UniProtKB/TrEMBL annotation:
Keywords attached to this entry: Aminopeptidase, Hydrolase, Metal-binding, Protease
Protein name from the UniProt record: Methionine aminopeptidase
Region annotation Disordered: where it falls in the sequence: 248-272
GO CC annotation terms, alphabetical: cytosol
Entry's Gene Ontology molecular function annotations: initiator methionyl aminopeptidase activity; metal ion binding; metalloaminopeptidase activity
Domain Peptidase M24: 13-245
Length: 272
């Protein structure tokens, strides 16, 4: 069932989203050559506890995965793109790191992700990250009341093809609100004019992710980490967005970017 949120409930989600955006910005700044992934994980655990928030990842047990997820971040490096299981690994110069997190505050959830280059950036990696960010922006722009869910998906897919990437639709965005994963599924490719009509009060996580040279994926033995099937690098960008009468409202903007309808996130592919 899809629950439409009131303006007051969207504002409560925005409070959570502000914290998520701030913490992701902190983690992006902390990620540097020599920093261990577990340092990022423990930084996030500490900040979440200080805020009185709850991780949506801790004890998460979907149909995939091997046992409950016992971390607060998904940290995916290079050819890993989704659900990267934090482990002891010191970041190296040129690594492409994707950071994904979702938390709840006072019963309302927000979810966001970004990708960064650690140290020296290769042009092809910057292009890949840029493609996910431009696709995210296009998906947000299409998330207008009266349009269709397929318009969001089609906008994302069009950007992927323009950059020369193929789209995997096994995993994508989703509804969000009282829990991390709600209806509807938000595919990263689709047909304009198809799917449910977007109504004010709908809140969704839009999350394009692309692999450089394939649309096929494989799972690590840990049952969580998803990688490109051919070992090529990957990137992932995500925001929680509310459909409002005034236009799409990004609830997880990071410091330095507005949160009112009509303002967009548009994070550039920055190096840490």
């Amino acid at each position: 069932m899809i629950e439409l949120k009131s303006p007051e409930e969207i504002q409560r989600m925005a409070v959570t989203g502000q914290f998520v955006g701030e913490l992701l910005a902190e983690l992006r700044a902390v990620a540097a050559v020599g920093v261990n992934l577990m340092d990022l994980e423990h930084h996030a655990r500490r900040r979440i506890k200080e805020r009185g928030a709850e991780s949506c990842y801790w004890d998460y047990s979907p149909s995939f995965g091997r046992g409950p997820f016992r971390n607060v971040l998904c940290l995916s490096v290079n050819d890993a793109v989704l659900h990267g299981l934090p482990h002891s690994y010191a970041l190296r110069d040129g690594d492409l790191l994707s950071i994904d997190m979702a938390v709840g505050i006072d019963g309302w959830v927000a979810d966001s992700a970004l990708s960064v280059i650690v140290g020296t950036a290769a042009a092809e990696d910057l292009k890949l990250i840029e493609a996910t960010e431009v696709a995210l922006e296009a998906g947000i722009d299409a998330a207008v009341a009266g349009s269709h869910l397929g318009d969001v998906s089609a906008a994302i897919g069009e950007v992927a093809r323009r950059y020369g990437y193929r789209v995997n639709n096994e995993f994508g965005g989703h509804g969000i609100g009282r829990t991390m994963h709600e209806a509807p599924h938000v595919a990263n490719d689709g047909r304009s004019g198809r799917g449910m009509k977007l109504k004010p009060g709908l809140t969704i996580a839009i999350e394009p992710w692309f692999c450089r040279s394939t649309d096929k994926i494989k799972f690590d033995k840990d049952g969580w980490t998803i990688r490109s099937a051919d070992g090529s690098r990957t990137a992932h960008s995500e925001h929680t967005v509310a459909i409002t009468e005034a236009g799409p409202q990004v609830l997880t903007t990071r410091p330095g970017h507005g949160t009112t309808p009509g303002n967009r996130s548009g994070q550039s592919a920055a190096t840490s």
